[in-house]
Amino acid sequence: MCPIPFALIQVIPFLSLSKASGSVTVIAMSSGHIVVVGGGAAGFFAAITCAEARPGARVTVLERSAQFLAKVRISGGGRCNVTHACFDPRELAARYPRGGRALLAPYEVFQARDTVAWFEARGVRLKTERDGRMFPVTDSSQTIIDCLLRAAENAGVKLRANSGVAGISKRTGGGFALALTGGERIECDRVLLATGGCRAAALGQLANSLGHTLEPPVPSLFTFHVDKTWVHELSGISVESVEASVPETGLRERGALLLTHWGLSGPVILRLSAWGARALHALGYRFPLRLNWLPHLDSEKIAAELRSLGAAQPARLIVNTPISPLPSRLWEKLVLAAGIPPDVRWSGLSRAAAHSLVQQLIRTETPVTGQSLNKDEFVTCGGVRLKEVNFKTMESRICPGLHFAGELLDIDGLTGGFNFQAAWTTGWIAGCAMAGNLE
Ligand SMILES: Cc1cc2nc3c(=O)[nH]c(=O)nc-3n(C[C@H](O)[C@H](O)[C@H](O)COP(=O)(O)OP(=O)(O)OC[C@H]3O[C@@H](n4cnc5c(N)ncnc54)[C@H](O)[C@@H]3O)c2cc1C
User: Fold this and answer.
1) CA-based nearest residue to 132, from 423, 417, 379
2) pLDDT number for residue 32
3) What is the pLDDT of residue 18?
4) Beta 190-193 vs 402-404: how paired, if at all?
5) Which is nearest to 219 in space by CA: 9, 377, 404?
6) b vs e for 270-296, b when ≥16 Cβ sit within 10 Å of the residue's Cβ?
7) I need a labelling partner for 62 at 20 to 30 A (CA). Which of 17, 168, 234, 353 fits?
8) In angstroms, what is the span from residue 40 Cα to ligand 1's centroid?
9) Site to substitute for ligand 1 among 419, 424, 425, 428, most atoms within 8 A of C-beta
10) Ligand 1 pocket, 115 CB below 6 A?
11) What are the residue ranges in the chain where pLDDT is below 70?
């Protein structure tokens, strides 16, 4: 069992926390009413944490759609990439283009290891893939949904679907009044907004109405459109390590690249899109992209490699003998783009042509003409301004009694389980704090 996190001892002096199970041991009881708006990952985690900590409390989740946890269901291609096997809070926080600094202290309290323990304590084992992504061993997001629904039920959380919140106001005597879309009015002592990413600014209206500012929303985790035949013709090819950069912005990332029938995708592009979400939006998603196909070698080493290839097989056609590890179809395109005709043999490679080939290998330039959402995972960059929230409690600094968790905040991570981790952590902290501040 881990020691009680210091930050939370200050906030919730009467709770003892067991991070090994991710649960909160109860000491005090309460009769207050806590409402969680949004039945997604963050809302469920907060509601369960709060209700487990204070069984006497009334905790209600209001979800506007007919289904709870809809994004969990479709996440990770239906497998739910729950978190990432990155157990150092500092390293974990470094995977967030927005919100990393704010998440550092919360990750000292509840990080990926705690997520693994939380699910394991409730009967769900996670496995780690080669790239660090963690999934339930069942490879089914339904396992995570079932676990969260069961935990909510066991903790006595009241779940209400088809209960969208249209408006929220502060009551004069303290607490909040919520107006539901069906006309019903609900009162509560504390409220958590966990309504997810605001893809349109209007979706932040509940937070706005209580005095909060939203950083304008733009997409993150998208793929690039490229209107070049050579790219489309290479659809389906992936290259394990490519360096992609946008010279206009200084953005530069390295990783696997996937060529598709509309352009470029894969981890390196998703990372560029995440770190460059605002800059690339400002460019209208039209910019020159530079690709280095052999980022582990400098131009002199590549030139030397070409010379040794030439010496070893002078009679072979250059287009047919790719440099390792490039796929042969890509190599052929690069050789032709360097101006080397298909019938030239290694023995006939001039110094100028060799130089042109090296340049092509380290600096293929292609214009990007637009973006598409990555269907496997996308998030919104933007949301509730972070300095308006106390990350020790996830409580508003503007409106006491109001808490935030999940993607509604101006937090978004790289692909790989980091977005759910932010939802679990902020939800858990908000849940603890709401339980502790009931009386
Ligand atoms: C296709 C896809 C796949 C993804 N896969 C992964 C993955 O594998 N791993 C990962 O880490 N991240 C993944 N993500 C990102 C991740 O799903 C989100 O970051 C995460 O779901 C955010 O959780 P949340 O609870 O803040 O918001 P959400 O999950 O969006 O939940 C918010 C809920 O609030 C409800 N709501 C909104 N407004 C109101 C209102 N006014 N009244 C009542 N209810 C309201 C919504 O209907 C919704 O159910 C994926 C995203 C997408 C789109």
Assistant:
1) 417
2) 87
3) 52
4) parallel
5) 377
6) bbbbbbbbbbbbeeebebebebbbbbe
7) 17
8) 5
9) 419
10) no
11) 1-31, 437-439
- In this prediction, residue 377 carries a pLDDT of 84
Model confidence pLDDT, tens digit, residues 200-250: 777 789 999 999 999 999 999 999 999 999 999 999 999 999 999 999 999
83 lines ligand 1 (CB under 6 A): no
Does the beta carbon of 199 lie inside 6 Å of ligand 1? Answer: no
Ligand 1 pocket: which of 60, 69, 75, 380 to mutate (most atoms <8 Å of CB)?
A: 75
**Model pTM greater than 0.85?**
yes
Is 64 close to ligand 1, i.e. is its CB under 6 Å away? yes
CA distance 242 to 259: 12
Span from the CA of 196 to the centroid of ligand 1 (angstroms):
5
60 in ligand 1 pocket by Cβ < 6 Å? no
* pLDDT given at position 326: 96
CB 145 within 8 A of CB 79: no
Selection from 5, 2, 22 nearest residue 115 by Cα:
22
Q: Is 161 in the pocket of ligand 1 (CB under 6 A)?
A: no
Q: Quote the pLDDT of residue 357.
A: 98
C-alpha dihedral sign at 145, 146, 148, 152: positive
State the pLDDT at residue 203: 78
- Could you give the count of Cα atoms lying within 13 Å of 46 in the half-sphere of its Cβ? 36
CA of 43 to the centre of ligand 1 (A): 10
Nearest CA to ligand 1 atom 51: 377
State how far the Cα of 268 lies from the Cα of 256, in Å rounded to an integer: 6
- d(CA 39, ligand 1 centre) in Å: 9
Structural contact between residues 295 and 254, judged by C-beta atoms closer than 8 angstroms: yes
Closest CA to 279 of 323, 228, 218, 238: 218
Query: Does residue 425 have its Cβ closer than 6 Å to ligand 1?
Result: no
Dist. CA 308 → ligand 1 center (Å): 53
Residues 226/366, Cβ–Cβ less than 8 Å: yes
Q: Are the CB atoms for 224 and 263 separated by under 8 Å?
A: yes
Q: Is the CB of 381 under 6 A from ligand 1?
A: no
